[in-house]
Design brief:
The protein is an alpha+beta fold. It has nine helices and four strands, in the order ααβααβαααβαβα. A four-stranded antiparallel β-sheet has the order 1-2-4-3. α2 packs across α7. Its EC number is 1.1.1.298.
Length: 194
């Protein structure tokens, strides 16, 4: 099976990064549906290290303010939902459930560098799945990397021990972007075929 043209448009060709948001809530059911798609995406060894914190109330998004770069404050505070895309450095504690391969937990537990690299890489991958799943379900998306990760971890993740990677604002865009789509690299500039 291949996505039809409208599916490709929805996910990639016509999709644009939201700049302004309508005052329209995103339902809990929609957020659960987004995650139900995200969790199906592949990760190495099915390690599934990503963790997501959905900030749905203005008060919780306001708690992000001190951690945000100046250019991101209005975008985040006006979004109906902001997701902290994080990863669990101790993801391997769940491997006995996620992967029947014996000895995986011990392998990662014995090598902190390997565990962190695996958690970051696969958690980032799952954050990409979040963007595509949200678009597939009709949400508009704004990924953000301009913030102080340590401040976000202190404010929201300290109890879990998770590590912040990036933010994703979700909602329904208010109008079309004011600027044309930024250029993208051509195949020959970004790819090698060996």
């Amino acid at each position: 099976m291949v996505l039809d043209e409208s599916g490709l448009d929805l996910l990639f060709r016509s999709a644009r990064t939201a700049e302004r948001w309508r005052d329209e809530p995103v339902s809990d059911e929609t957020l659960r549906s987004v995650y139900d798609l995200v969790r199906l995406g592949p990760t190495s060894g099915n390690c599934s290290p990503a963790r997501f914190v959905f900030l749905r109330t203005p008060d919780n998004r306001e708690r992000l303010r001190p951690a945000l770069s100046a250019g991101n404050v209005d975008k985040v505070l006006s979004a109906p939902v902001t997701v902290i895309v994080a990863h669990d450095p101790l993801f391997f504690d769940r491997l006995a459930y996620l992967n029947p391969e014996p000895g995986l937990r011990a392998w990662f537990a014995a090598d902190v560098g390997l565990a962190e690299e695996t958690a970051f890489r696969n958690g980032t991958l799952q954050g990409g799945y979040l963007i595509l799943a949200a678009r597939a379900l009709g949400l508009d998306v704004l990924p953000i990397s301009g913030f102080d990760a340590y401040a976000i971890e202190d404010a929201f993740l300290a109890g879990q021990g998770w590590r912040a990677n990036f933010l994703v604002c979700l909602g329904y865009a208010d109008g079309e972007p004011e600027r044309p789509r930024a250029p993208r690299l051509a195949f020959d500039d970004a790819c090698l075929m060996l």
